[in-house]
Hints:
By secondary structure, the chain is of the alpha/beta class. It is built from 13 helices and 13 strands.
Amino acid sequence: xxxxxxxxxxxxxxxxxxxxxxxxxxxxxxxxxxxxxxxxxxxxxxxxxxxxxxxxxxxxxxxxxxxxxxxxxxxxxxxxxxxxxxxxxxxxxxxxxxxxxxxxxxxxxxxxxxxxxxxxxxxxxxxxxxxxxxxxxxxxxxxxxxxxxxxxxxxxxxxxxxxxxxxxxxxxxxxxxxxxxxxxxxxxxxxxxxxxxxxxxxxxxxxxxxxxxxxxxxxxxxxxxxxxxxxxxxxxxxxxxxxxxxxxxxxxxxxxxxxxxxxxxxxxxxxxxxxxxxxxxxxxxxxxxxxxxxxxxxxxxxxxxxxxxxxxxxxxxxxxxxxxxxxxxxxxxxxxxxxxxxxxxxxxxxxxxxxxxxxxxxxxxxxxxxxxxxxxxxxxxxxxxxxxxxxxxxxx
Length: 396
């Protein structure tokens, strides 16, 4: 696969050259004041992206999966009950982690392509008058299906029931790319990683804890050492880490956060929406549909394209890589072979996205799909050239 071409997978995403260089700095003494000049802007910048005034932000050498484990082990005890919906591969994996830690998981099954069933959450929470449920899990953006769930609706279900459970949100493929409102939505732990909206290599688990979540760390007894936020908080107070920090990645994160601030957070969200909508128009022009069942569920970071009957989506991904040196995402779990995924997040522009759509069309034509070359690209071009506006603009 050519390193000259951008990738169109839902993470890791394309890395801007200046961020790549920022990650490869000379060795720096992480016990010196120089490290504080990296650490503190990272903590403040993540807090800003989370739209939180006072979240406790922690950055671990890990990935989003380590962020999940951080959330669970710092706030829960063996046998605690967790409420979770399984509507895709990544919600499934978080549930699996809970079960491996000896937690009692009440699973709400939902179709892959649907969002979190907040109405069913509401019924379960209202019936839990003894408040056995300690945590509610929610995957904001299900990367396997391209589904964005309504976190505000989950918070409303908790509030309407007067339920004290903590709300944990997996924002790995949404935070930094789509609007995320930690304070407004009453999120107690937000989990993300470095390799998606932050445009970095994989290697950082980034989490935000509310005051309520921090209070839960005092009684939680699940084992944790490496992911203990109390150790991390104590070290942060001295501008350090409880162990050797990933200095280069954090220096890259500092720059990435500065780039997001310079572009403007709302402009970042608008860019992701515009690029995603162009992809969706291309998919419609191909005569296909997203895996997400309804428009309000459409993700602005990844589209899982349902392939026609008799075709295998994995073949699209394999041929794109082998013949054209371009990466798309395969279908996972229940949608394996039924979809291929187009990632459209992180360091990406309209023009870059057009190259991905053109490649997808060539691949599908090679494989005998009923697709007319240029149809999807033209649909996206028509949208992009008007700046993402749907009305026609007279030529100047």
